[in-house]
Amino acid sequence: MVAGCVVDRTTRRLLVAALVLLSVTAAYLPVSDAWTSIGTGCRYDPKNDDDGLGLGFNTGGSLYDADERLKVEHAASSWNAAMVPNFTVVTWGSSKQDLKVTWANLGASIGGRLSYTCGSNHWTQDPTFSFGANATYYVASAGRRKAIAIHELGHSYGLHHNSTAGCGAGAGLMASNAVGKYDLCLWSGPTADDVTGATTRHNAGS
Amino acid sequence: MIRPMSSTRRRTRAMVVFAVLGSMLLLLGSCGNSDETVGLDLARASFRTTGQLARSSDAVVIADLKGIGPTEGDGAGLAMTSSQAVIVEVISQRPDNPIFLSEGDRISVAVVLIDPKFADKLVNYDELAADFIGVRDLAKVQGNTEVVLYLVARPEVQVQNNRIGLFEAIAIATTEEGEQITFDAVPGPIDDTTVDVSTVVDTATTAHDEPAPWREDEGEPVEIEPIPASGSRPPLAEDE
């Protein structure tokens, strides 16, 4: 027993009952590749469901690009069309902010970077999605940039990487190489598997 | 006499044992572990072919690399290392290369890599480092004074307030016997592979016939039609 953690008899019984129920239920749940491969399983705080997932844009930096912001908003809209909770745009630094979007010098072959800190499966501080300001041909086209944004926003729902090959059932933009997957499949939004994974994570509660 | 246990009783007992063990793990997890972990996800090119490298670069050169310079981290998991190099031969370069290269030029070369100082901080450092340029990759080219560099001009980046002649190397290869090169520092599956020099030359000269697509004037901002939201869900909007 961990020091400092006192659990009474009733609680212990409830925990055992819950565990048995979980064990039985888990065997019958449908499997989605997008979420079964979750590593950290980190995601937004579910207490924010009511006001949506707030996207704060850092519009003050010298690298800010309004066109890139549009790509992020369109990526968010494509998630919104498929599932709840919805993304909303909030003021940079506001209390409703759940994901910070900014721009950075990341190098010629990097289109985006998501930095996050996790505790008990949830962000313990707003994660930062940085768009690369120096991407070359390989990550500079409009469609590829939107695919990157869809991928990084997908991590907000708690999705990790999808390893399904090709463009068929079970595949999605949550592939570790979202740019390559976009080139192969030309998806303009999250796939059915991406949405199934995100919805399942959302419905799983805390 | 001890009677053999029925299969039903064995199953029941096994379930109880499983439940007790499980609840202990649950208690340990919920009461004792409040540690935070820090992670990083990179959306980046993963190079498979010399053609992809050529299309993503401004120039391909053979250079005398004067060692690998110090590494400067950006505080969020990436680092940049800078070195000096002298051009031995220009294999190809784009017509709009912002810093036109000639044999004998001395240039600053930067390499973006996973910051080794984050090895103990990032929960997924090993996963990232396995398919990205790392310190060990640079160590392979450290002793080679003649290397093949795929360069992208980065005139906007300052190194010690010096903006002149800075390039980023997206790939470094060392020359081998028999007109071949081996890629030693590249993000993606082409790393650690050996190809003919003729392939490098052919793909580079073909790709570098054209100006860089990423520098083309796009005119009006690129519009992407948002996917229409379904009726019951509100569109993305400013809420504050």
Can you offer a commentary on this structure?
The complex is a heterodimer of chains A (206) and B (240). Chain A is an alpha/beta fold and 206 residues long. Chain A has a single domain, classed as 3-Layer(aba) Sandwich (Collagenase (Catalytic Domain)). Chain A contains 7 helices and 6 strands, in the order H-H-E-H-E-E-E-E-E-H-H-H-H. In chain A, helix 3 (66-80) crosses helix 5 (142-156) and helix 5 packs across helix 6. Chain A is globular, with a radius of gyration of 19 Å. Chain B is an alpha+beta fold. Chain B has a domain at 57-212: Beta Barrel (OB fold (Dihydrolipoamide Acetyltransferase, E2P)), CATH 2.40.50. Chain B contains 5 helices and 9 strands; from the N terminus they run αβαββββααββββα. Chain B has a 5-stranded mixed barrel with strand order 2-4-5-7-6. In chain B, a hairpin with a 4-residue loop joins strand 3 and strand 4. Chain B is elongated, with a radius of gyration of 27 Å. The relative contact order of chain B is 0.17. The model of chain B is unreliable at 25-33 and 219-235 (pLDDT under 50). At the A-B interface, helix 1, helix 3, strand 2, strand 4 and helix 4 of A face helix 1 and strand 1 of B.
